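--- STAGE predict ---
source: upstream dedup step, 1 unique chain passed
mode: sequence only
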Amino acid sequence: MRPASPDELAQLRAAEAVIVRLRWLAMAAWPLILWHADAPAGRAAAWAAWGVTLPYVAATHLVNRAGVAVRPTAVATTIADPVVTALMCAVTGGLRSDFFPFFYLTTLATSIRFGMRETFAAVALGSGLAAALFAWAPGPPATPFDLALRVFFLFFVALEGGLLSRAARAQWRERQALLRRLLRAGEEERRRLAGEVHDRLGRRFFELHGALERQRAVAAPADAAAFERLAADARACAEEIRAVTNTLRPTVLDDFGLVEAVREHAAHLQAQGGLAVSLRVDDDADPPADVAIVLWRVLQEALLNVRKHAEAARVEIGLARSAGGFELVVRDDGRGFDPAAPARGCLGLLTMRERVEACGGRLVVESRPGSGTTVRATVPAGAAA
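--- STAGE serialize ---
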């Protein structure tokens, strides 16, 4: 199986989250089905099979929530889901079990997560398990036609689901490519504006400050204080322009990389006062330029939210390498909020999530009222923003 692209990983992660919830829904429905289903192997065996399935579903939920090894987990569950279904069918009537339609659902889940080749491999697995049920499962005898009909439906569901998923994936890729182009265009415009502001306004205020200083040196004592105040105002305007250009596009990010940009930003935040800043940065956590700008924008937005909304006394910033990529963590001890119900008109979380997901990454926001907030952005090393 070829390595997954960042876009494919993002789509697979989203599909896995949905399938995990559907597994729990199936687990809730199975006791109701068991209550009315025949159990040729005995009721105790049927309930035991259901009980064995529960830890498996719980484990897949925990792994999905951790967000690690997404593709290997999806491959493993693609194999395990029909095996678990076959186990339930084996003790509840074989091919004629009320649980057999779940085979079709596992095939559909495979088509949602993977391509046609993997989907038809799942059909082959399901057909083999159906043949085993036909040959050995206790219960009402099934005919070869029963087996052929169920294999046909497996094939049909795989074909239909695979074609629909292929179209959906194509639309997903087009959307992600468009979003990346928009973000890239936005960054280029920010870079252009920063250069224009610095070169034009910054230079003018620098020249004004110099002229005022020269006039102050030759002015009468009664006028020197006024020139000094004007020169101070010009210097303050120049500093504001420098701050604006750094917000638009910090030169340190382009010249020295993300690590130095994060350190400088943390030092500036600490110097502003009112917030204790703790910084943990790996020296080798300097990602490529496309990844660096994504993480930088997430850092800017997260720290802006801390200053404006969190009422925090302390913030921790972490930047490190993760498995196959880079991870940025911003954690504060502020008042927190409910991530499922953000304040109306606040687009910061949406913007951060779109940036991260556009390059195949993942953004996790953990918070609750009164308990601070943690923003965690993980981006693949080879992502292209």
